[in-house]
């Protein structure tokens, strides 16, 4: 198992996909949220300002963090899902999966190593998202956040971590479909299902939307969600991981 962790960790460290995704997740949503807040603050007769003002839950830190949470609710799962799909799909696309059948390291150990490292990466990115958001807010002139804003930053960090966990089941379509495209298809299904659940009023219990509803909170017009409901996220993540490992145990070489 140690050998599997070492090899998979090396792949992640040297991957341009992981590097680009990490930078994008840390910076792009926060910069977009700050740009939207700036547009909303302009006011006046600008059509863009009027539209943005309707989307943001407030001004200052409240509007900035509220907008960022709305953006990251989708961007987080998409960004992490792309990395998960690459990590598993590349074994088939690059034909390196064949060598795993001749390796002394069991394929299930390789799969578990991938999943555990991806989970650790998503936690690190989640914490980094909140830190980057705070730095960008300070650097762009929003001043120091108060205690309420600090709690919202905590919700943002939790959402970012949970978004990474929600992306882990993408490993299953990447493995079953033997490539990148099935992973992208599975990811799109999850995103669309989350949007449909929100529209249908099931966002407070559907695993791929409950974290976003909780993070946005009543101040964004969402229903109140008990933090206890968030336990469904690691549950479905664990089930997806177990199903992926089971596939790797039984899959035949292609």
How would a crystallographer describe the biggest sheet?
none
Compute the separation of the termini in Å: 24 Å
Number of helices: 11
Following the backbone from N to C, one meets helices and strands in this order, namely HHHHHHHHHHH
How many individual domains? 1
What percent strand?
under 5%
Mean pLDDT: 85
Number of strands: 0
Write the layout of secondary structure elements.
Layout (H helix, E strand, L loop, with lengths): L1 H13 L1 H27 L4 H9 L4 H34 L3 H4 L6 H33 L7 H21 L3 H6 L3 H20 L7 H10 L15 H19 L4
Helix pairs in contact: 1-6, 2-3, 2-4, 2-6, 4-6, 4-7, 4-9, 4-10, 6-7, 6-11, 7-10, 7-11
Structure report:
- It is a single chain.
- With 254 residues, the protein is mainly alpha-helical.
- The chain has one domain.
- Helices cover 77% and strands 0% of the residues.
- It is built from 11 helices and no strands.
- The protein has helices at 2-14, 16-42, 47-55, 60-93, 97-100, 107-139, 147-167, 171-176, 180-199, 207-216, 232-250.
- Helix 7 (147-167) runs parallel beside helix 11.
- It starts with a helix and ends with a helix.
In brief:
With 254 residues, the chain is mainly α. The chain has one domain. Helices cover 77% and strands 0% of the residues.
Structural key phrases:
77% helix; 254 residues; mainly alpha; elongated
